[in-house]
Amino acid sequence: MITGRILRDAILSGANNISNQRSRVDELNVFPVPDGDTGTNMSMTVGAARPELEAMSDDCAVGEAAKAAASAMLRGARGNSGVITSLLFRGFSKALDGKKTADAADVVAALQKGVEAAYKAVMKPTEGTMLTVARVASEEAAASGIADVVELWQLVMSAGQRALDNTPNQLPVLKKAGVVDAGGQGLMVIFEGMQIVFEGGKPIQCEEAAQNKAKLSTDGAGKGVFTDDLMKVEDIKNGYCTQFLVNKNEGASIAKLRAFLESNGDSVVVIEDDDVANCHVHTADPGKILSHAIQYGYLTGFKIENMHEQFLARQKQGKGLEKQKAAEEAPAAAFPYAAVDPERTFGFVAVAAGEGLASVFADLGVDAVVSGGQTMNPATEDILAAVQSVPAGTVFVLPNNKNIIMAAEQAQKIADRKVVVLPTRTIPQGITAMLSFDPDADADANSIAMMEAAGRVSTGLVTFAARNSDFDGHKIKKGDIMAMENGKIVNIGTDISKMTYRLARSMVKKDTSFITLISGCDVSEEEAQRTLELVQAKVGDSVEVTLINGGQPVYYYMIGVE
């Protein structure tokens, strides 16, 4: 029998185990491009539940522990592997809802519900991935008839391991690289940490205390960025950073609570799901805030910090307030909540990295730009905060990366306004989609037109190899320059400019009219201009080539061909 304390400690143990082993899991990624690696995304997703679980008492119910973990993971999910992980644990929340303890049958039901939700979330599920590992473990557990939880979880582990060992036989790319699926391995690492507690052991301890979080930004005006040059301690009118969780009463109107917070403070962010609202506000009177909030449900996870003291301490050390709790405060400060304006029909959120790209999207009409991309996948709660900062009845979200689409879709489900996720997979696709927006058309017509336009864009990328690899017929050494067309490696070399103009020339077709060349943060203006001239010379005057200083990391150049 599993109690709430046991499940709480088991999930904490799993979170710490994946945190400790995330580099090992990251190294299983066979694609040599630097990316938001699987182990890191899974670690940050499960780790998002750590504060809520650590705040729970030993006599908590198993349903309460499952619900707290699932809610936090949903908000903190990063990357496709993180979203799938959060959905698997969402199954625990649904199956154990209202239960004080759980038996083996409840665990089987939890696994089944999690697998069902994960498969539904993936448009085209691929076997030989973490989905397979979870499904096989769930199916064998369900067929076993085992009544003892410890024995059942041992079966889950053995079945999952067999499925993991078989992934190279299901995906040739894994077999060629001599590795198993990274997501499946990460899932087994989490389950291993849980098993230790189920068998009566102490939870695995986290070896790394610091938890990274993708930063957020909006165009323009430095919202939420405070420095010693911009402000003085007396400028902080609402001096207490107040955070808490509301475990909602039935029928509670969190919209009314949010309105109260807005009228009694600033930097308000409220992230809500079915059962819990995560609240953040800067206020002059935390007591007044908490006294009012308790009307909506019981409160947990309190955190109140004196921003005056923090400011003076940072100033004394020669550091700006910008560095103070940057990861925690950026979402709230960058994206303050905005109620829907009935006069505002459409709004836009895009994900991009680099000041130049943020400016480009702002010029195209994007209201909020979430800073993120290939190596820093934003969490669901980051995208949600951006969405709820846009006072429009319908908000279009452009993820601009295939590994961010699922997180955007999860934000769509918990936002308090209509959200349309346009599954753009690259920055050039996102730019073209925005150029195709028609303010006189409705949401459905725009969704179709914008994605049709994005689908006509071919994307080229010039980057470096993050690891040695024998991939897709290419012998690749760490540091090599790689040219990719629509995700496929087409050339390896050492000269960035040469690789770029060769890639652009190879992408040009008879009907090509435009090429957009986007330079990254590691390319100087002079180098970018020289590359522009080379590309224009190679493709001829019939094709218009435009240069944008994107400032993005990872990619020396992005190329959009239409």
TrEMBL record:
One GO biological process term is: glycerol metabolic process
Q: Which PROSITE patterns match?
A: DHAL
InterPro entries, from UniProt? DegV_domain_contain, DhaL_dom, DhaL_dom_sf, FakA-like_C, FakA-like_M, YloV-like
Residue stretches making up the DhaL domain: 5-196
What is the name of the protein in this document? Answer: DAK2 domain-containing protein
Q: Provide any one GO MF term from the record.
A: glycerone kinase activity
Short name of any one Pfam family annotated for the protein: FakA-like_M
SUPFAM superfamilies the UniProt entry points to: DhaL-like
